[in-house]
Predict the structure.
Amino acid sequence: MTSATDDLDASQWDPTDLAFRHDPIPWYRALREQSPVYGHPDLGIVLSRYEDIDRVLRDTRFGLATPSPWREMFAAGAPASMLLLGENSLLFIDPPQHTRVRGLVAQAFNPRRIEQLRPRIEAAINGILDRLEAQATFDVLTEIAWPIPIMGVTDLLDVPATDQALLHAWTDAITAVDELPIDLAVLPAAGVAADEFLAYAGDLVDERRKNPGDDLISALIAAEEDGESLTHEELLAMIVLILLAGHDTTASLISTGLWLLLSHPEAADEVRNNPESVPNAIEEILRYLGPLQVASGGGRWPNEPVTIGDTLIEPGTPVRLLLGSANRDPEQYDDPDRFDIHRTAIRHLAFGRGLHVCLGAALGRLEAQIVIPAVLKRFPDLALVDAEPTWRPSLVVRQLATLPVTTGRG
Ligand code: HEM
């Protein structure tokens, strides 16, 4: 049997190639079939099969804070503010610190707090749609996919809506460091943004210590377990991480989701007309084209020699996990390249798995489950302007650069 990847040679894979970044799926297939444990000179070991990635995410021999030449290189080149974030951020620490911090954060970031946001997200999307009502065309990213998630996190932290542009700019500068292969040239700008962001978070913490409210920052300050609480640095890093992790990702989910549904009109009609179809449709969007194609930028490192397939991975070797490839693995899914909102037992890896599984998954899902059907219902004739999508040229983040649509109005 021939497949679309017969002409791709996995040994020629170039993760910086723009053609790969535009459409990674054929290369994922080639990697899974020909070289599932792939040694790359800049990236380390790259895993592409669901089973291997799932296992590493749950294997306690792999950590994020384990020493490695890559981390040493980062430490040598990174400004102090970036190191503070790296050493205290939930996403970059290992047990026992991770266990303590995650336990404390989970007390504050609980389902009740997320559910409280529901009416606010509904009001926000309805307000945006009222404003767009008479327009003939608009860009989904600018008008909807960016504003809603940033509003979600600023509401959660109770920071002024007028700071959203600032927070957005800091996020862009800091997350540039997560791109692969890492470009050390982005570190100085990331450092400036991290300095400013940490000062901003510090002021917020001082203010909430004096005047606690019903917001997530006050709850993080108050969280305590067995006499332990978050250190000042952990608190600041957590505030920054929530803002960083909480909006770019969900903006991708909302915009990619609308693009996929508008490209599959029957599925769009079902989401428009049948509320019960919505949760599974969102899970299929997450599987099919999830916002994060690679687990956190730094990857995982084994703290002892580990063998995967025939490859012995020594401590200090970075292991990169292609979540987007795992979610297209035919060993896990029938006909994985078919977008099917009726697919059952999806169990995708778009939110990761194991110790670091996404803390904000419930919020990302809630926003997408409210916003995507609301947009489709308001505009029954919504249609794509471009036949071909334009993706941001990133290995790590799957996000459309722009998503112009016509409304059939105006
Ligand atoms: C659709 C939206 C989202 C996606 C696809 C997503 C994806 C992920 C993934 C894949 C990880 C694990 C990374 C790894 O193991 O290396 C993660 C972790 C995390 N996410 Fe999300 N995320 C989303 C939304 C959010 C939101 C809305 C927030 C907060 C408001 C958030 C906060 C976090 C935090 C704090 C972690 C670190 C957890 C830990 O290390 O224990 N995420 N996310």
User: Anything to note?
Assistant: Residues 90-91, 102, 153, 241-242, 245-246, 249-250, 253, 290-292, 295-296, 350-352, 356, 358-360, 363-364 surround protoporphyrin IX containing FE (CB under 6 Å).
